[in-house]
Every structure is written in structure tokens, then in C-alpha cells.
């Protein structure tokens, strides 16, 4: 009798909503369609290093007939962020071999996938990647797991903040994540009705922001404002700052607040909200569940067809595969200054940095 194929699956890097929906899809499809055994590797490469694997079966994924993984945030496998180093490459490969795995699915963002790509080459693994990140900075794919939910979480926060801002004629500064990319701030800022969106790719001028806020009050009768600030926002080099353009050690939102306070001569009533890891939590949106489920199924099919070194991508409305090397060569994907959404924001009178 032929030995059942042993498939490993791990989640690496920062968690996001939809990871468990990917695991559910992989386990269901691999076991029901191909009769493979699936093993969850706890804490990404650390699990491989320690030679740990948890058998996963579709029967173990439900709770009194309810399937919690589809809508459960986080990852049941655990994950590590920044700890995923290549220092222990030989031990990780040895751990993988000791587990007797025939193939591996790695769910990660660009940083984790770069490490897993080197490991799969070193270990000659059959490996397929699935992109996830709230930063949306993985190249060559129209969707990644987790981004849509994070955008919705921010939009919900902006909706709430708008009413309290309007009640007190305040400027609300909302700091959002995204690392070196502004996709999260841009998408959520437009969808949430922001007046100012600051992203790492387009430098801003504090003077321009203050003028814009003044104009909103004087010409548009909008006495409050919503300012969405990406954590990696950049001041323009030749723009004079009120507090000397020091790199903030207080967080970008607080820094922008103090800059606006100075420039407006304390005329504006400003409050800061740092959304932080709330953006990574919560139940996955319908879109993230769909993307997660379709990606999981596609990854299993790719392995069945003998493919390796590829990442599943969403392209023109369907799931395809791209070479992981090609994806990583263009990641992290940043917002292009002529991005259609940047133009859209400007067309609507949103301040989005220096043109
Ligand atoms: O990459 C996802 C992300 O949430 C970034 O947006 C953020 O900068 C970073 O991870 C936070 O990492 P940590 O959870 O390690 O603080």
C-alpha cells in the first residue's frame, strides 16, 4: 500500500485574521480529496527546529459540529515575528527531515517568505507559499489574507472617531500600521472619509497639512478633521518642521500631533488614537475568508501537481501561481505615487502629501 503523503503547514510572521481559514481549507482539501496526512508546525520555523508537528484532521477542527476555524482570528499554530532567522538553517532542515514531511505550505508575509524560500532551497523541500499580511505589501497578487479585515477594522474606528471629533470640533489623528508601506492607511483613509492621509511613499509638509485643515474650516465649514497617519509616514526633506524634523521616538501619531499643534500655534484641539494591534485582531471579513479558502485549496492542488517554489496569487479574479523568487524580487510592494487610489484621494480634496 502506498504511504500517505505527509504535508506540513505553518504560519509565520505577524498574525492576521484569516490564517485559521487557510489551515481549515488546506486540511479539508488535502485529507478529503487526496487522502494526505496534514501536520501543523507550531511557531513557524521554531517548530521545525524543535521537530514538533501536530496532526490535524477535519474531525479535530470542529466544535460540536461548528467549524470555528473559518471565523477565528489569529492562528491556532502560533507564529513568530522577527524571530524567524536563518542562523539555524541546518538544524531547521534536519528537523524537517526528522518529521518525515513530503511537502510544506508556508503562510507568511514578504519577510517570512524570504526566509522560507531560502530554507526550501537549502532543504530541497516541495514548498508552496500563501501570502498573508495586513500591510498588503506582497507583490504580484491582488489579494493577500488579512488585509481586508484590517482595512475594515480601521474604517470602523474612523466611523466612531468621526462623530466624537465632530461633536467637539477636534482634529483626530489616527495612527495605523503598515510598516514601510501605505496601503493600509490609503485604503482605510479613503473608505473611512479621512481629510488627510500620510503614507511612507509620499512625503508630507506640516505647513501644507495645517493650511489644509485651515481651509477645511474656513471654506468648507468642516470644523473637525480626521488625519490618518501610517506608522512609517515621512516628512519631505526640504519641508521645514516646527520641531526640527527629529525622528519621532513617541510614535508617528503623537509626533504629527505635536507638529500640527506647533504650526497651528495651539489653535487646534487635537487628540491621538493609536490603533495598534487591534488592527491584527478580530474575525476575518467575508473577503478574507474567501481568499484564504481559495488560496488553501490552490496550494494543495499545486503540490498534488508536483509544483514547488511558488506562491499562490490572486490575478484577474482567479487564483494562479507565481514563482516565489519573482514575488520576493518585487516585495515589499509600496504604493506607487501615481496609484489610482492616490489620484482618487487627491481628486476628492484629501491631502496626501507633496505632489
Ligand atoms: O507586518 C505586520 C505588522 O503588523 C506591521 O504593520 C507592524 O509594523 C508590525 O507587524 C508590528 O509587529 P509586532 O507585532 O512584532 O509589534
> What is the N-to-C order of secondary-structure elements (H for helix, E for strand)?
EHEHEHEHEHEHEHEHEHEEHH
Q: What count of helical segments does DSSP give?
A: 11
Q: Order the strands across the largest sheet as they lie in space.
A: 3-2-1-4-5-10-11
Low-confidence stretches: none
Ligands bound to this protein structure: 6-O-phosphono-beta-D-fructofuranose
> N-to-C terminal Cα separation, in Å?
67 Å
Mean pLDDT: 94
Structural class computed from helices and strand pairing: alpha/beta
Percentage of β-strand residues: 15-25%
Radius of gyration: 22 Å
Largest sheet: 7 strands, mixed
Write a short abstract of this structure.
The chain is 38% helix and 16% strand.
Structural description of this entry:
With about 350 residues, the chain is α/β, with parallel strands linked by helices. About 40% of the residues lie in helices and about 15% in strands. The protein is built from 11 helices and 11 strands. The longest helix has 22 residues. It is elongated and about 80 Å long. The model has no long low-confidence stretch (mean pLDDT about 95). The structure holds 6-O-phosphono-beta-D-fructofuranose.
Amino acid at each position: 500500500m502506498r504511504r500517505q503523503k505527509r504535508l506540513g503547514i505553518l504560519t509565520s510572521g505577524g498574525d492576521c485574521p484569516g490564517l485559521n481559514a487557510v489551515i481549515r481549507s488546506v486540511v479539508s482539501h488535502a485529507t478529503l480529496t487526496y487522502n494526505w496526512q496534514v501536520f501543523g508546525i507550531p511557531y513557524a520555523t521554531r517548530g521545525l527546529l524543535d521537530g514538533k508537528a501536530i496532526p490535524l484532521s477535519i474531525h479535530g477542527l470542529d466544535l460540536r459540529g461548528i467549524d470555528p476555524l473559518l471565523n477565528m482570528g489569529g492562528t491556532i499554530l502560533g507564529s513568530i515575528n522577527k524571530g524567524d532567522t536563518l542562523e539555524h538553517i541546518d538544524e531547521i532542515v534536519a528537523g524537517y527531515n526528522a518529521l518525515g514531511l513530503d511537502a510544506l505550505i508556508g503562510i507568511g508575509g514578504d519577510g517570512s517568505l524570504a526566509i522560507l524560500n531560502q530554507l526550501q532551497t537549502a532543504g530541497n523541500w516541495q514548498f508552496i507559499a500563501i501570502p498573508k499580511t495586513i500591510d498588503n505589501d506582497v507583490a504580484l497578487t491582488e489579494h493577500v489574507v488579512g488585509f481586508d479585515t484590517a482595512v475594515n477594522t480601521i474604517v470602523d474606528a474612523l466611523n466612531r472617531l468621526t462623530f466624537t471629533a465632530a461633536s467637539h470640533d477636534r482634529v483626530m489623528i489616527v495612527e495605523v500600521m503598515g510598516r514601510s508601506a501605505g496601503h493600509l492607511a490609503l485604503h482605510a483613509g479613503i473608505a473611512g472619509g479621512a481629510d488627510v492621509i500620510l503614507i511612507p511613499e509620499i512625503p508630507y509638509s506640516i505647513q501644507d497639512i495645517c493650511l489644509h485643515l485651515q481651509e477645511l474650516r474656513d471654506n468648507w465649514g468642516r470644523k473637525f478633521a480626521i488625519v490618518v497617519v501610517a506608522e512609517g509616514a515621512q516628512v519631505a526633506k526640504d519641508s521645514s518642521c516646527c520641531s526640527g524634523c527629529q525622528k519621532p521616538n513617541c510614535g508617528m501619531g503623537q509626533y504629527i500631533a505635536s507638529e500640527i499643534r506647533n504650526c497651528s500655534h495651539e489653535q487646534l484641539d487635537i487628540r491621538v488614537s493609536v490603533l495598534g494591534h487591534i488592527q491584527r485582531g478580530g474575525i476575518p471579513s467575508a473577503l478574507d475568508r474567501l481568499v484564504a479558502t481559495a488560496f488553501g485549496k490552490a496550494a494543495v492542488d499545486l503540490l498534488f501537481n508536483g509544483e514547488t517554489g511558488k506562491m499562490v496569487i490572486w490575478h484577474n479574479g482567479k487564483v494562479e501561481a507565481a514563482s516565489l523568487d519573482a514575488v520576493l524580487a518585487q516585495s515589499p510592494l509600496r504604493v506607487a505615487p501615481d496609484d489610482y487610489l492616490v489620484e482618487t484621494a487627491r481628486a476628492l480634496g484629501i491631502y496626501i502629501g507633496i505632489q
